[in-house]
Amino acid sequence: METPIVHLIQGMLAPGLMISACGLLLLGMNNKYSLVVNRIRLLNEEKRKIFHQEKFDETDTSRLSNIELQISHLIGRISLVRNAVFSYSMAVALFIVSSVLIGVTIHARTPGFDWLIVGFFYAGMFAVFVGIIFAAIEVWKGYRIVKIEISEVFKHVD
Length: 158
Hints:
The chain has three helices and no strands.
């Protein structure tokens, strides 16, 4: 026979697992956010160095336009990462609320809130799904930026 505390802990476990899963997703997205921001800073530094040269040739002009193109794509990419982080953070908040509601409902023996608990849990799952969509779009755009960089390298090899 289960004791009330065991039943309480088991009931609160599913949202707790989702909180942990979202924590891992947040960790990955925060790392990606840092990488994109650092890439923007490096490109801006390279742009400043080119502008401070005494004179620049056609190669420098081509590189400047390539840098500008990459920065514009990276700015779009950083907003996608921000949206994914926001979605995952909202999911964590929703899972916490559902976990607390499960605990209160089981502890106080008030089963009337089941629909509310399920609603918060589903809303959390939806927020995770939205975050995954933003993350997938961001990966796709990241590939396009790499293609821009590679096209610049191959242009100068010919």
